[in-house]
Design goal:
Number of strands: 5
Order of helices and strands: EEEEE
Shape: globular
Structural class: mainly beta
Distance between the termini: 26 Å
Number of helices: 0
Strand content: 35-45%
Length: 70
């Protein structure tokens, strides 16, 4: 495991990262009290930006463990 810093890591579980071929975008799973959802981060100036929740089009009640609300 690698500490990705406060822009990515929280007290919740983050796992299954996937990075684009150019190394500039990461999508990962975060499991929290709201369920299991996908987040994304973009690298700028060599640092990962604040993780952002992917839209409700991607994160649905049908493809996560226990998602209730954001």
């Amino acid at each position: 495991p690698i500490d990705m810093g406060g822009a990515i890591n929280t007290a919740d579980d983050e796992y299954f990262p996937s990075v684009t071929a150019d190394g500039q975008t990461m999508i990962f799973t975060r499991r929290s009290s709201q369920g299991e959802n996908f987040y994304t981060s973009t690298k700028k100036d060599g640092k990962w930006g604040q993780a952002k929740y992917l839209s409700d089009t991607i994160n649905t009640d049908f493809n996560t463990l226990t998602r209730t609300t954001r």
